[in-house]
Amino acid sequence: MKKLFPSIVLAIVCIAVSGLLAFANKLTQPKIAQANEEKLNRSLTDVFGDADYRISGKSFENVNRIITDEKNRVIFDITVDGYEKNGIQALIGIDSDGKICGIGIVSLKETAGVGTKIKDDKYIQKYIGLDNDNFPDDTVISGATYSSKGMRNAVSVAMNIYESQKGEGF
Q1: For residue 45, is it within any domain?
Q2: Closest C-alpha to 165, from 102, 47, 49, 76
Q3: Count of domains for the chain
Q4: Global pTM value
Q5: I want to staple 93 with a disulfide (CB 3.0 to 4.6 A). Which of 64, 75, 82, 142 is the partner?
Q6: Is residue 70 part of a domain?
Q7: Is the pLDDT of residue 85 over 70?
Q8: So what's the pLDDT on residue 1?
């Protein structure tokens, strides 16, 4: 019995700690979801202005949601890999002419000072007005290749889905 006692105590402690973690997760889950939703709404307003945004019911790979507005813009909430797995969450907006009209970074888990260069306005402006995914060479940042290729991938995903669905609507 003496040999089993430490194992029983350890098992009880593990069960208690697991229960506390599950309880803490249940308590914080709604607050985290609300904070993420507020962050998305701020990004939408910052990049695309005030509008009547509607979430589409369609779903595609790498696309968290598709958002439309009364200006006939389609905004893709996309998560792609950069240097980090799922390190870039971006809003890619396409106007009714099929051109990139805005890009907003919702979440960025890339290396500070290197991969985070993709959120600089000067970098994002290189994509504005593009109507295909033939990107200029200067959209790849030296030293931040994975991050900039991740951004290119996010824009490509949005452009390809837009092209394949534009006749069907969102």
Answers
A1: no
A2: 76
A3: 1
A4: 0.78
A5: 75
A6: yes
A7: yes
A8: 63
Query: What secondary structure does DSSP assign to 51-116, as a single string?
Result: ---EE-S---TTEEEEEE-TT--EEEEEEE-SSSTT-EEEEEEE-TTS-EEEEEEEEE-SPTTTGG
CA dist., res. 120 & res. 70, Å (int): 28
Is 8 among the domain residues?
A: no
The pLDDT of residue 129: 93
What tens digit of pLDDT does each residue of 5-45 get? 888 889 999 999 999 999 988 989 889 888 888 888 888 88
For the purposes of burial, counting CB atoms within 10 Å of the CB of 130, is it exposed (0-12), middle (13-18) or buried (19 or more)? middle
87 within 8 A of 110, measured Cβ to Cβ:
yes
Under DSSP, the state recorded for 17 is H
Closest of 55, 58, 77 to residue 67, by C-alpha:
55
Sheet containing strand 63-68, edge to edge, reads: 54-55, 63-68, 74-80, 88-94, 100-108
| pLDDT 10s digits, 34-59 | 888 888 888 888 888 888 889 888 88
In a domain, 136, yes or no: yes
